[in-house]
Amino acid sequence: MIIIENGHWKAKELETEINKYFGCKHSQLVSSGTAALTTVMQALGIGYGDEIICPSFTFVASFEAILSVGAVPVMVDVDDTLTLNLKAVKAAITPKTKCVMPVHMCGSMADMDALQQICKEHNLILLEDACQAIGATYKGKKLGTIGDAGTFSFDYVKTMTCGEGGVVMTNREDIYINSDGFSDHGHDHKGVDRGADLHPFIGYNFRISELHAAVGLAQISRVDEFLATQKKNHAALKNILATVPEISFRRIPDPEGDSCTFLSWFLPTEEITKAVVAELKAQNILAGNFYWYNNNWHYVRKWDHLKTGATLSALSPELKEKVMHHANKDFSVSDAVMSRCISTAISLVWTDEQIKEKGEKIVAAIQKVMTK
Ligand SMILES: *Cc1c(COP(=O)(O)O)cnc(C)c1O
Asked: Does residue 79 sit in the same domain as residue 165?
């Protein structure tokens, strides 16, 4: 809930729609997906000394939010689901671990049953970063509503957008009340006006605006339509790429639940993958095909600012040492996956002819590389 004067309640209306559509008890809109992660970490009491296990393949917002609450981002390897590698998660648990944060990258999901089991066994918080998986499901439940809490981003590249915005979703009232207060300067929203509110804890301002919420309201009514188009286009492209024997596809714990924002596929070796990327570039058809391994934003290999602990203001020496330690670990298990992976973004506006042309050009590029 956001308090806006004069009875304007677009944000409240959107929260109600989110609860209904995604199937959670509570949601708290905020100004971005990153703000949603920071807010929910505060709401969960994650802070000084706590370690959060997150994947090596994610968006930089994951570790930004963890650092913003003074906790330690413990990146671990991913597997062929492009999400948390279960063995790596188990191996990373220490007495300081407080939370496991799967990131449902590129529209599809982590193995939620297994992660829930691990969290239950070790008494850990399960926090889903579902920012890239709006509308995706796991065994019938929407991603972001399965763990203790989950987040979406509504920035302009996400499946549903507010222009900018984000949300914390949870079935736990305590997390909701804390998120509601924290994202609005700690106001308890119980006073007759804002000046009369009490402040049980120190907050911050991560409010979404009414204008952004209004855009979100127009978008949420179209999510089903977006998903249906994505699924159709994804299937058509996959059929074409599946004719190449050297291609394998991302493992998806619940294929029916894939939101199909991307088609992620693997080639047999790093060398072949690099050559195919070079060939796509040479033919001017690389746009929309993401080779995350060489990308500065999404994979640990190129996070030099994290590896060197480059912050504008000083971190505590203790935190900085731990941050740098975890960023500079061996990620060869992830490298073996990510160096062979290409993700093709699925467009909502492709025609059948365009999909056929795109698919056939990619297949031709692979064949050219393979016969060299
Ligand atoms: C987009 C994104 C975020 C952050 O969202 P913003 O709204 O851009 O702050 C966080 N996590 C993931 C996985 C994302 O893709």
From this structure: yes
